[in-house]
């Protein structure tokens, strides 16, 4: 197992993976019985595994949650249209209601149209802002109490590193939190905060889950890619680096807040 370096069988890995997510949900009190929970579903491995595991844990441990799939159609031809087909299949496979919100309906334009106007520079930044707003509006439409996303330990490490490089202390102090937006109408939760990307890939592969693995056609130009490559290089030196990196930065943030 990548996270602990244990030699375990496939079935034991499934149990360990699922139990770890369950313990994170319980120990952090992510949900309360009766919550309407919107799962940000892109069709990718993270959100697909999240939808599968959360629906399974909800059933096994009787969380009493009302789960929904929520997808955003950014209007990226050859990417999002294909991934949404995967989400529609997940809807049937997991028996969860699905809501799709689109940039075209919400804002009057698609990302393809925006890229034609502004070019490839900073388009991922624009898309990220609009996507978060779209998820909030979709969750509000579903009358959701919580919005969960598939951000994993690697994603959070990348975000932490990006905020350090940008000197964005405000975001640095909250980007590693497992729950954000508690002061807003719909808090966001990250049940995979401590979960390694490698383990999510392994789980999806061995479980033969139906997910979309093609990268966004605009993402190679994203600044985040540099942070991702840096962390991958460090992981080659020491495998469990991502979580250690997050822990170090969390301690740094705590010290900064306490003594500033």
TrEMBL record:
Keyword entries, A-Z: ATP-binding, Cytoplasm, Membrane, Nucleotide-binding, RNA-binding, Transferase, Transmembrane, Transmembrane helix, tRNA processing, tRNA-binding
tRNA(Ile)-lysidine/2-thiocytidine synthase N-terminal domain: residues covered: 37-221
TM region positions: 241-259
CDD domains: CTU1-like
Signal peptide start and end residues: none
InterPro entries for the chain: CTU1-like_ATP-bd, Rossmann-like_a/b/a_fold, TilS/TtcA_N, tRNA_thiolation_TtcA_Ctu1
Any one of the GO CC terms: cytosolic tRNA wobble base thiouridylase complex
Binding of ATP, residues: 40-42, 46, 72, 150, 155
Biological process (GO), any one: tRNA wobble position uridine thiolation
GO MF annotation terms: ATP binding; transferase activity; tRNA binding
Its job: Plays a central role in 2-thiolation of mcm(5)S(2)U at tRNA wobble positions of tRNA(Lys), tRNA(Glu) and tRNA(Gln). Directly binds tRNAs and probably acts by catalyzing adenylation of tRNAs, an intermediate required for 2-thiolation. It is unclear whether it acts as a sulfurtransferase that transfers sulfur from thiocarboxylated URM1 onto the uridine of tRNAs at wobble position.
Name this protein carries in UniProt: Cytoplasmic tRNA 2-thiolation protein 1-like protein
